Amino acid sequence: MLPGNPFLKGFSQTPNGTIFDSARVEQLRKGPLGDLADVDAASALARLSWDELLEYGTEQKNLRLDNAEIAVALRALRAVLGRLRIVFDPPFRDQVGFHQYWKSRGMSDAGGWAKRRAYLAGLFEPVLARLETIEDLQTGQQADRDGTAVQITEVTRRRLIDGLDAVRKKIMDELAEAGAPVGLPDLFWWGTLDEVAFLDRLYDLDRMPSLDPRYATARLDLIQHCINNDDFPADWIYRDERFGIGAHDGRLLRFLVETLHPVVRPEQVEVRHLHAFYNSVLAHDGYELVQVDQISGAPIFASRRIGGGVSGTMKNIIFAADGPKPEIVLGDAVNNDIRIVRNADNCLVYDRPLNPEGLTWADLLSWWRARQSLSTEVSDLDAGRDLCNRLWRSLASKPEQVLFRAYAQAYLLREDTSRCPALIPQVYLHYDPQTRRQRGGKDSMLGRGRMDFLLLLPHSTRVVLEVDGQQHYADGMEAGAAASPHLYSKMAAEDRALRLKGYEVYRFGGHELTRNEAAVTAMLQNFFEALLAKHPFMAP
After folding, report:
1. Beta partners for 338?
2. How buried is 18 (Cβ within 10 angstroms: 0-12 exposed, 13-18 middle, 19+ buried)?
3. Residue limits of the AbiJ-NTD3 domain (predicted)?
4. Quick one: which of 446, 442, 462, 459 has its CA closest to 506?
5. Of 28, 26, 30, 32, whose CA–CA distance to 458 is shortest?
6. Which of 294-298, 334-338, 360-364, 459-463 tops mean pLDDT?
7. Local confidence band at 431 (pLDDT 50, 70, 90 cut-offs)
């Protein structure tokens, strides 16, 4: 693979020395790649597209992509940025369209090159800045304006360097006990790669400066000092300000995660001991590395704040009831397998395994297609409308409908957004076999029966959205009904219980969702954008 970009392959027999991996880019357009996080893929594709359009708009001597290939690249870039909730919609779709656009905007006259350069910078720089922000938010840590971290201490960083000798000894002892040939592992951070190949996975070395005045880029600098001369100490990366490992939480955590990647470190005994060591050190500052996926049986890790997410494994979701309460029994009490014996047609049950990235709209659509036996000729958009109509029927109030409609229009019923989180209405949290009437009007001892809306996000994060009508805080539904401290206290207690289990709870007053439609829509869009930025929905 050509250094610096995962979508180009080097072949010397081609005129420009590269081949565009259009199949891989098309795969990215349809969904996240197994070995590359969306945020990294988007960054690489944005830089490639920027470089190619810049070259096309200037000299056109070193183009690596033709008109059809840049169209594929831009289409995939729009899709992956859409999954990341980043707006990117340039007024052209390929090189020819870019040429027509700059001619129509007066960028062909004197000084046209500079104008085209400035235009492309204005198009791509905000996208790359937003991607870097998402990278920070993935770790739960926003950097200060000067790029410094505020959470992981210098003591922790030093321990990560100094503690490797003890890890090496543990690995050697385990291998000796197993009767394997014993050799002290190097445990270099670059694993089975070299420093340059490793850093290529995280940075664009061709755009980074050299610290050696003899060379123009970080790549040439590192090739000379890490490969040709090998005169850098093993821990130089922690002190090199270009990479920010020593002063930026997000970059340090991402760096540590990459050292455990199966491409970098295929020996699982090393991965196991390093993972345990990292977590023992990071725990003092409130972070941990957790498995979120796997490749060929080898784990893929991501970082998160300790205590984030809900413990336990989801087995099924009972939701969107639009009729009488379902009657549930235990079909297998040992395995806690449930069976709905009455009113099953009134509710939906999602019982597929939950992916590490949570429950996406694509997952729910796939399940819905199978449940409804929808033909492959039915588009995802039409299948999505059908599913939304079914979910809509379970909504009990106008405010709930307003919230669901805003989310569906912004994220669900659009092309290339099927990887966004599914918004699930009317989800059973507790199940009491008796109805309120059967209990003589008394509350269930289990507390809140259903959640208004649920989002299942990466790292076992579960977000509850509640829409509070008057019945949540007043005695009676008539206008001017007296406020009820009892109802409010009960609601607060149930929220506390949910939060202690690891759920995040956000409440909307029904009144605020029945104001001016445009204002409500804008408010909800801002809320969802902020929520999903806090919990980036991508494969790490």
Report:
1. 330
2. middle
3. 151-335
4. 462
5. 32
6. 360-364
7. low
Summary count for the chain: helices (H), strands (E): 16, 12
Contact 250, 282 (CB under 8 A): no
Most confidently modeled of 123-137, 298-312, 349-363?
Answer: 349-363
By three-state DSSP, how is residue 340 classified?
strand
The owner of tokens 């990479």 is 243
List the beta bridge partners of residue 33: 36
Strand segments, DSSP code E, in 169-286 are none
Q: Got the DSSP string for 422-489?
A: P-EEEEESS--SS-TTTTTTPPPTT---EEEEEEEETTTEEEEEEEE-GGGTBSSSSTTPPB-HHHHH
3-state SS, residue 348: strand
For residues 425 and 400, the answer to whether their CB atoms sit within 8 Å is yes
Exposure letters 89-128 (e unless 16+ CB within 10 A, then b): ebebebbebbbeebeeeebeeeeeeebbeebbeebbeebe
Three-state SS string over 274-333 comes to HHHHHHHHHHHHCEEEEEEEEECCEEEEEEEECCCCCCCCCCCEEECCCCCCCEEEEEEC
Residues whose CB is less than 8 angstroms from the CB of residue 287 and which lie 6 or more positions away in sequence, other chains included: 139, 140, 151, 152, 249, 253, 303, 304, 305, 306
Per residue in 202-252, pLDDT (tens digit) is: 888 887 889 999 999 899 999 999 999 988 888 899 888 888 888 788 889
Six-digit token pair at 307? 């205590």
pLDDT, tens digit, 9 for 90 and up, residues 61-81: 788 889 999 999 999 999 888
* Dist. CA 318–CA 451, nearest whole Å: 11
Q: How far apart are CA 250 and CA 64, in angstroms?
A: 32
The dihedral through the CA atoms of 384, 387, 389, 391 has a sign that is: negative
273 with 167: CB under 8 angstroms?
Answer: yes
Q: Are 267 and 168 in contact (CB under 8 A)?
A: no
Residues found in the chain: 540
What string of H, E and C letters represents the secondary structure of 87-102?
CCCCCCCCHHHHHHHH
Q: Are 246 and 235 in contact (CB under 8 A)?
A: no
* CA-based nearest residue to 391, from 456, 322, 324: 322
Q: CB under 8 Å to 393, separation ≥6 — which residues?
A: 320, 322
4-18, 22-36, 265-279, range with the lowest pLDDT: 4-18
